[in-house]
Amino acid sequence: MLYVVPGILGYYIAGGVLPPPALVLAGYLHISAMHLFSAIPDIGFDATAGMTTTAVVLGRRRSLLLCLAFWSGLAALVIRLSGLHPASLLVLVYPAVSLALLLREGLSIDRVYWYLPFVNTGLGGLVFLLATLRTAAW
């Protein structure tokens, strides 16, 4: 929840009300998936160091399945909350990442992981732009 709190506070400061629970849930699902996904490449190192992380306990495949579940939930929420806006379908890239890694053994999570910041920035920027244009008085 730590990563979602700044968004909750920003929403409250800007609007004087707390965000709807569905938005908080969407944030939680995304940060949970991102956090778990980033721990998967470290499973071997963490296990060797005696660390008990979620990724170590679940292993690679089950961690990817949980990321798939989290990101699928996020995608369903975003698409529903947007009223099926065509741009909202871009969120399907997140569950697609987990699914691709589950289906293609040769695909390296170490390489894929480094593309996610670009995806996050691109989609986050698009959401900001669309929200700004929607509320701008033209």
From TrEMBL:
State if Transferase is listed as a keyword: yes
What membrane topology is annotated for this entry?
Multi-pass membrane protein
Where does the record say this protein resides? Cell membrane
Q: Which Gene Ontology CC terms are recorded?
A: plasma membrane
Q: Where are the transmembrane segments?
A: 12-31, 63-81, 112-133
Tell me a Gene Ontology molecular-function term this record carries: transferase activity, transferring alkyl or aryl (other than methyl) groups
- UniProt key word Transmembrane: yes
Per UniProt, the keywords (alphabetical) are: Membrane, Transferase, Transmembrane, Transmembrane helix
Tell me which InterPro entries the record gives: UbiA_prenyltransferase (IPR000537)
> Which Gene3D superfamilies does the record associate with it?
UbiA prenyltransferase (1.20.120.1780)
Supply the name of the protein.
Answer: Prenyltransferase
